[in-house]
Automatic annotation (TrEMBL):
Any one Gene Ontology molecular-function term assigned to this protein's record: transferase activity
A Gene Ontology biological process term: translation
Organism in which the protein naturally occurs: Arthrobacter yangruifuii
Protein name: Glutamyl-tRNA(Gln) amidotransferase subunit A
Family membership: Belongs to the amidase family. GatA subfamily.
Assembly, per entry: Heterotrimer of A, B and C subunits.
Alphabetic keyword roster: ATP-binding, Ligase, Nucleotide-binding, Protein biosynthesis, Transferase
Keyword check for Transferase: yes
Matching InterPro entries: Amidase, Amidase_CS, Amidase_dom, AS_sf, GatA
Location of the Amidase domain: 25-469
Domain of life: Bacteria
Function according to Swiss-Prot or TrEMBL: Allows the formation of correctly charged Gln-tRNA(Gln) through the transamidation of misacylated Glu-tRNA(Gln) in organisms which lack glutaminyl-tRNA synthetase. The reaction takes place in the presence of glutamine and ATP through an activated gamma-phospho-Glu-tRNA(Gln).
GO cellular component, one term: glutamyl-tRNA(Gln) amidotransferase complex
Length: 500
């Protein structure tokens, strides 16, 4: 396999700066790879060939002219198809938006354009980011490069699979309850959910606005840091955007170190319900961190047992409101009722019945029920109180520890179809990732080894605005694990015949 597609983003950036390769060569190598393998993976819903090559050619020209370029200029990236892009379709994985073209760019896309990173295309996802397997996409599931019969996680399975299958060195995801971290975990890649407000949500199609966050997917901790530095920062177009800078993430990733760091094991995020192989890899990582000088403490977050229940009230409530705009009138799909009369209510109803899939309908029904006048206090109100209790649990935990550690997901990639008819089993995939969204704090998932030949993710969590700690701890663990494995985990993956 070409070194151009197995290199990390940081390595590509160095080769480009040294003029060992051109941006066109790098971009073409990834487009070739997509052509070669995406029939089997289905990570991409749209491939942006012409524009990507044009951006790359412009970068090469600018470099030849001696222009000052961003470090990642010419390094290609894939975009989750929940983020709007001018000039490329945006579907949100739904029939509702089939063929829809956004008239504007999301803020993160404007920043990627400003850095002159060629966009390879838009990646597959569960419809409107609802799911943990990418099987709820209206455009067919994405397959896990480690085993094509298995799920790549969700909702951002397309972005994670693209990165793990060497179709893209970098990708953007969105994480409302784990949709960046869980797909990263089950595909052996790195995924980061930044602090809420650290990256602008302007132009991310809203699922649950108080939980949603855009973040990086990559193969190394340093690459994720470099990408977060591109997309992060204050945006006046997002009223929840933070004004304070989060510091140099890439420096932290280049200087991974846990000596003297207090790392808290969350009692409630391990043990029962976690696969034996997942628990074993987790325990080994903890021991490695201890050997590297970290002080390991145990913390308890007793209210985490209510997190999943509260999430499945708050998230559907917000989603039911956010999805009300798909009415067959303003934009997107329009389905006319089979029989007259042609009233606006009947057009809305026919459109929403035909345009939304089962999981989206399930959540709209849940959300409108939880918000209805008679039940608001009992459901939505109680869930908001639980959210406060979870935040207090984190406050107490972070008084004892600088970062927390847990498995990212209780299980490795399951078989396609295995949990499709069992929504509750599907929801349990996010048991360890949801608390971070409820509290607005940042989290990272890094590869922690294999269980029965399938990747296991290790999650670090940090207090709000302390993303830098995730990169310092994540890079330290990554370095030790790679030393043990003799290289990155994905280098040993049986990705469609093997990366040797
Ligand atoms: N899997 C979770 C859900 O279905 C999380 C989704 C997400 O983070 N977008 O809600």
């Amino acid at each position: 396999m070409s070194e151009l597609i197995t290199s990390s983003a940081a390595q590509l950036a160095a080769k480009l700066a040294a003029r060992e390769v051109t941006a066109v060569e790098v971009t073409q190598a990834h487009l070739d790879r997509i052509n070669e393998v995406d029939g089997a993976i289905n990570a991409f819903l749209h491939v942006n060939t012409d524009e990507a090559l044009q951006v790359a050619a412009d970068v090469d020209k600018a470099r030849a002219a001696g222009e000052d370029l961003h470090e990642l200029a010419g390094v290609p990236i894939a975009i989750k198809d929940l983020i709007v892009t001018k000039g490329q379709p945006t579907t949100a994985g739904s029939k509702m938006l089939e063929g829809w073209m956004s008239p504007y760019d999301a803020t993160v896309i404007s920043k990627i354009r400003a850095a002159r990173m060629p966009m390879l295309g838009k990646t597959n996802l569960d419809e409107f980011a609802m799911g943990s397997s990418t099987e709820h996409s209206a455009y067919g599931p994405t397959h896990n490069p480690w085993d094509l019969d298995r799920i790549p996680g969700g909702s951002g399975g397309g972005s994670a699979a693209a990165v793990a299958a060497f179709e893209a060195p970098l990708a953007l995801g969105t994480d409302t309850g784990g949709s960046i971290r869980q797909p990263a975990a089950v595909t052996g890649s790195v995924g980061v959910k930044p602090t809420y407000g650290g990256v602008s949500r302007y132009g991310a199609i809203a699922m649950a606005s108080s939980l949603d966050q855009i973040g990086p997917v990559s193969r190394t901790v340093l690459d994720a840091a470099l990408l977060q530095e591109v997309i992060g920062g204050h945006d006046p177009r997002d009223s929840t955007s933070l004004t304070d800078p989060v510091g140099s993430l890439a420096d932290a990733a280049r200087n991974g170190n846990v000596a003297g760091m207090r790392i808290g094991i969350v009692k409630e995020l391990q043990g029962e319900g976690y696969e034996a192989g997942v628990q074993a890899r987790f325990n080994e990582s903890v021991e490695m961190l201890r050997d590297a000088g970290a002080e390991i403490v145990e913390v308890s977050c007793p209210n985490f047992k209510y997190a999943l229940g509260a999430y499945y009230l708050i998230m559907p409530s917000e989603a039911s409101s956010n999805l009300a705009k798909y009415d067959g009138v303003r934009y997107g799909m329009r389905e006319l009722p089979a029989e007259p009369p042609l009233t606006i209510e009947r057009v809305m109803s026919a459109t929403r019945a035909a345009g939304f899939g089962d999981e989206v309908k399930r959540r709209i029904i849940l959300g409108t029920y939880a918000l209805s006048a008679g039940y608001y206090d009992a459901y939505y109100g109680s869930a908001q109180k639980v959210r406060t209790l979870i935040q207090r649990d984190f406050d107490a935990a972070f008084a004892q520890a600088d970062v927390l550690i847990s498995p990212t997901s209780p299980n490795t990639a399951f078989k396609l179809g295995e949990k499709l008819d069992d929504p509750l089993a599907m929801y349990l995939n996010d048991i360890a990732t949801i608390p971070a969204n409820m509290a607005g704090i940042p989290g990272i998932s890094i590869p922690g080894g294999l269980s029965d030949g399938l990747p296991v993710g290790i999650q670090f969590l940090a207090p709000a605005r302390e993303d830098i700690r995730l990169y310092r701890a994540g890079a330290a663990l990554e370095g030790m694990l790679e030393q043990k494995w003799g290289g990155p985990l994905l280098a040993s993956a049986p990705v469609l015949g093997g990366v040797k």
